[in-house]
Amino acid sequence: MAYGESQHDHHGCEIIYLSARGKQRVLKDAANRNLRRLDKLLDVYVVVGRSGIATVGHRYKRIARP
User: Fold this and answer.
1) Does the N terminus or the C terminus of the chain have fewer Cβ atoms within 10 A?
2) DSSP for 6-45, written as a single string
3) Smallest Cα–Cα separation from 47: which of 2, 7, 61, 3?
């Protein structure tokens, strides 16, 4: 979540996801070279509601920007 970008979903929640820039920052900071092979596993998102984390998931399509 430290490297993610956030976007409101207009239903009271916030979606935090790794953009291409965020992925580059993760891989740059990664000391372990094995993490570099896991680039596809970085396509994740977190939905945060008023009471905390609502759900997490794997992105298979782009998140639409307003």
Assistant:
1) C
2) EEE-SSS-EEEE--HHHHHHHHHH---HHHHTTGGGG-EE
3) 7
